[in-house]
Amino acid sequence: MLYIFESALDEVEAVSRETREKLSGLDQILQSTSESLQVLKERLEQTAS
Predict the structure, then answer these.
(1) Of 6, 7, 8, 29, which shows the fewest CB atoms inside 10 Å?
(2) Residue 15, CA atoms < 13 Å, CB-side half-sphere
(3) CA Rg value for the chain
């Protein structure tokens, strides 16, 4: 799931600046979700250890 959000974030960053400005809300949501998923992944790995 983290990979999907990071890939989507990469796609948003690859578009033109004008288009990216229109999608800025989406960019922020994807970034936040990616960070949250990374934290969850690290916690799950610690729990499994």
Answers:
(1) 7
(2) 13
(3) 13
